Amino acid sequence: MDIKRILAALLAGVVMVGSLSACGEKENDSDYSSDDAVTSADDSNNDTAEYAHPQINDTSEDTTQAVTTTTVTTTAAITTTVATTIIVPEETHPTVETVEETAEAVTTTAVTTTSVTTTTAATTTTAPEEIEAPEVEIADVPMFKYEYDAELGSMVITSYIGTEKSVSVPDNIDGKPVSEIGVYAFGECTYLRDITIPDSVTKISKEAFYGCTSLTEVNIPDGVTAIDPLAFYGCTSLTEVNIPDGVTAIDPFAFYGCTALTEIDIPDSVTEIGDYAFCGCTSLSEFDIPDGVMVIGNDAFCDCTALTDMTIPDSVTEIGVEAFYGCTSLTEVHISDTVTLIEALAFENCISL
Fold first, then answer.
1. Where are the beta strands (DSSP E) in 165-322?
2. What is the four-CA torsion angle of 86, 89, 93, 99, rounded to 10 degrees?
3. Do residues 286 and 311 make contact, with C-beta atoms less than 8 angstroms apart?
4. How big is the CA angle at 187 (ends 182 and 189), to the nearest 5 degrees?
5. Which of 68, 222, 232, 298 is close enough to 244 for a disulfide, judged by CB 3.0 to 4.6 Å?
């Protein structure tokens, strides 16, 4: 009997443990069930079944606790395993501190790389050291055409071929002095504004500055003795002219149509004012005829509409035809008793006289 009871109790405990360990699910492949085991125990001995029942309950509780503990432990183990599984390795996903350190390292590397690149670029684009060329003196080659006058032993400027607005005529070329501004040498150089003529020049030839409409001022050197016809014809911007003492004659049309000319000084050396010499100088308001002048040519001051007063010195003996024709502002004329000839129309159309 004792052996039967023990076997029954053990069998019941095994059935309970097997049932609980499956989390309430039956094992389909089992050859027995808990109900069959209990029935078998009852069939053998009812007393044994009653006696064994508490043992089964106790064992069940102990077994349940053991199973529960095992379950919890297993769950914890599983949780731990899962946690371990989902944690990214440190070297793959660094911490914040590691990221910051890495960023700093990357930044430093980037800066260093940029610096190296910049240095390389600078080295590449740096131009080679320039070698200074030795200073070479360049001769001042005047933009003139000229010819040698064997009789005078000097140079004559025959043409200006430059485009400068301000020009200085050289005093010598090839070691020979420049003595003359030739015929039409600067004719119609409309861009020429001022010119410097050297003291070596003694003659300003015919039409030398003809039509230089931008020329504003001329200083004629003391060595000049003759200003030929039409020398400054049509220089409409010329405002002032200084004629040196060496000049003896102002030839015909010399300053014809110089409409901006307001003042001109004629030295006592001048003996004749040629025909049309100052005709059409519409801005000329004052003019002192020096004592050395003997002849005032035909139309010498015609159409000088700004001229208001004229004194003719005792040296003058002849006043040409239409000498003061059209001087509409002329209000007073002083004529010396030495004048022996006043040609026709000398003061024609002087409406203010």
1. 166-168, 172-173, 176-181, 194-196, 203-204, 217-219, 226-227, 240-242, 249-250, 263-265, 272-273, 295-296, 309-311, 318-319
2. 140
3. no
4. 130
5. 222
Please identify which residue in the block is written with the tokens 């020429």. 192
Instruction: State the DSSP H helix or E strand holding residue 81, giving kind and residue range, or none if neither.
Output: helix 46-86
Nearest-CA neighbor of 225 among 169, 267, 189? 267
- Write the DSSP string, 180-213: EE-TTTTTT-TT--EEE--TT--EE-TTTTTT-T
Cα distance between residue 217 and residue 263, in whole Å: 11
Give the amino acid at 42: D
For residue 16, how far is the Cα from the chain centroid?
Answer: 102
Contact 300, 275 (CB under 8 A): yes
In tens digits, the chain (353 residues) has pLDDT values of 556 666 555 555 444 444 443 333 334 444 434 344 334 434 444 443 333 333 434 444 443 343 333 333 333 333 333 333 344 444 444 443 443 444 444 334 433 333 333 333 344 445 455 555 444 333 344 589 999 999 999 999 999 998 899 999 999 999 999 999 999 999 999 999 999 999 999 999 999 999 999 999 888 999 998 899 999 999 999 998 889 998 999 999 999 999 999 988 899 999 999 999 999 999 999 898 999 999 999 999 999 999 999 999 999 999 999 999 999 999 999 998 899 999 999 999 999 99
DSSP code string of 101-113: HHHHHHHHHHHHH
Read off the amino acid at residue 120: T
Half-sphere exposure of 165 (CA within 13 A, CB side): 5
Which pair of tokens denotes residue 201? 């020049």
For 262, the 3-state DSSP assignment is: coil
3-class secondary structure, 329: coil
Helix (H, G, I), strand (E, B) or coil at 217: strand
Q: Among 70, 55, 62, which residue's Cα sits nearest to residue 11?
A: 55
Give the whole-angstrom CA distance, residue 137 versus residue 215: 32
Q: Would you mind telling me the total number of residues written for the chain in this entry? A: 353
Amino acid at 312: I
Residue 215 identity (one-letter amino acid): L
CB atoms < 10 A from the CB of 143, how many?
11
